[in-house]
Amino acid sequence: MKTIYNAIMNKLTEVSKLKWIDLDRGQLEEQDRASIAFPGAIILIEIPGCKSLTDKIQDCRAVITIRLAWNITPARTSSKAPDAARNSSLEIYDTISEVYACLQGFETQNFNALSRTSQGKESRSDGLFVYKIVFECEFEDNSAE
Predict the structure, then answer these.
(1) 133 within 8 A of 117, measured Cβ to Cβ
(2) What integer pLDDT is reported at residue 34 of this predicted model?
(3) Which end of the chain is flanked by fewer CB atoms within 10 Å, N or C?
(4) Residue scoring higher pLDDT (35 or 115)
């Protein structure tokens, strides 16, 4: 999983608007978020399924969740907002699209192409705008050898 994390983290550095990329350790749920710069990307990797190929080698399915976070002031997105203000407030969607485009189909010799399976905004009451994009890929785990 370390190999997958490092590859995705390095790939996300291509998204120039991201100011912070990190492993998801619950930072967005903590009261003190001083160590996170916004907008940021938090990466979570899970392995919900594996199939044994041999006693020590498994074919694994990985689910990679990218949580994009902004600490934004109230957005001006209504139909009554001036076009410039609305477009500025909606720039978060440009970053979301850029992250998707950056990772969709991304692969290395260690895992096959990432494929988006879902995405959506998280419901929160703390003022953060958090949007998650979920990808899947498969890889062969021979670390037990």
Answers:
(1) no
(2) 59
(3) C
(4) 115
Dihedral angle sign, alpha carbons of residues 116, 121, 126, 129? positive
pTM over 0.90: yes
Question: At the top level of CATH, which class does the domain 2-141 belong to?
Answer: alpha beta
Residue 28 is classified by DSSP as G
Count the neighbouring beta carbons within 10 Å of the beta carbon of residue 121. Answer: 12
For residue 9, the surrounding DSSP H or E stretch is helix 2-12
Residue 53 C-beta-side C-alpha neighbours within 13 Å: 11
**Phi and psi dihedrals of 72, rounded to 5?**
-105, 150
Pairing outcome for strands 40-52 and 58-71: antiparallel
**Hey, what amino acid is at 1?**
M
Tokens 């940021």, located at residue: 40
Angle in degrees, CA 13, 70, 137, rounded to 5: 50
How far is the C-alpha of 4 from the C-alpha of 89, rounded, in Å?
33
Say if strands 40-52 and 20-23 run parallel, antiparallel, or are unpaired: parallel
Give tens-digit pLDDT for 45-62. 999 999 999 999 999 999
Domains of the chain, by residue range, sit at 2-141
Residue the block writes with tokens 């498994």: 58
